[in-house]
Write a structure and sequence with these properties.
By secondary structure, the chain is mainly α. It is built from 3 helices and no strands. It is elongated and about 50 Å long.
Length: 66
Amino acid sequence: MGTMSQKIKDMQSKRIAYQKEKTKEYMARVASYLSVEDQKILYSGNGFVEVPEEERHRERIDAYPY
């Protein structure tokens, strides 16, 4: 058995991996609503894209309409 600090590190690394996977799934779902140009912006992380109406209602995002 490992020490308590090793167990905590293992739990943290599993959580980080889980969050990365969920982020990829979330970005793929949002990208499915976007144009090709907006998908490039979303995946590059540079700039902002308009949140699709369906996603905004689903997530209840407080955003200014364009």
